[in-house]
Amino acid sequence: MPDPLRDNLFVNLASTVSEELTHVLASSNSVRIERIVSTGHSSPEGFWFDQDEHEWVVVLKGEARLAFENAETIYLKPGDHVNIPAHRKHRVEWTMPELPTVWLAVFYKD
Amino acid sequence: MPDPLRDNLFVNLASTVSEELTHVLASSNSVRIERIVSTGHSSPEGFWFDQDEHEWVVVLKGEARLAFENAETIYLKPGDHVNIPAHRKHRVEWTMPELPTVWLAVFYKD
Q: Which of A28, A62, B1, B88 is the most exposed place for a label (fewest CB within 10 A)?
């Protein structure tokens, strides 16, 4: 039996100004686990994520600010996690520009 | 609308020799996200986890060794993650005794 897939969240962080890096780490019909690396990226002005799935997300390295429609903006440092119900509109307002911000996101259904 | 639940993975790590700490961070019918804190804990000798759900797990702090039936033992340092299919028998062979080992585990269905 082959060894299970093992990988590290904190390698291959290189990203460019033009695009974020997204890797699907595991998935099934009901869940999708992604590592996202942002380096100064943010959501376009006026854009809101409006997702069919719930999203549990944690910042593991770096720093970010998440904005929610009709609510306060929250600042996330490593270890800070937030659960975003489906269709709760949100956007990434800011990520630190100098160093990669590593997110782990779990998208899931009811 | 209330702010979304925000919490930090790296606070309240105190555990005792007698038991691991487990917190469910988010869950639905199809997924359960847990933070587990081990401080020198391991699975009982001869015990194997044999789970109905798949488990994606990452070590975020500390160090651990996971054993799989009929396969090599793997050593996990922070950031190392592994996807364990349902019913793949495994056990926690060792976690570092001096400091808490923080796991993030996502249990999920097909």
A: B1
CB atoms within 10 A of CB B70: 7
**Please, which pLDDT band fits residue B6 given cuts at 50, 70 and 90?**
low
Contacts of A28 in chain B (CB under 8 A): 54, 108-110
Dihedral angle sign, alpha carbons of residues B39, B80, B22, A103: positive
Nearest CA in chain B to A84: B4
How crowded is the C-beta side of B4, counted as CA atoms within 13 Å? 28
pLDDT of residue A17: 58
Residues of B in contact with A8 (CB under 8 A): 77, 79-81
Instruction: Mark the ranges of chain A whose per-residue pLDDT is less than 50.
Output: 1-4
Would you say residue B17 has pLDDT above 80? no
Measured CA to CA, the distance from residue B10 to residue B13 in angstroms comes to: 7
Buried b (16+ CB within 10 A) or exposed e, B42-59: beeeeeeeeeebbbbbbb
Instruction: Give the residue from chain A lying closest to B72, CA to CA.
Output: A3
pTM score, whole prediction = 0.90
Q: Which residue has the tokens 């994520």?
A: A49
Using DSSP, state whether B41 is helix, strand or coil: coil
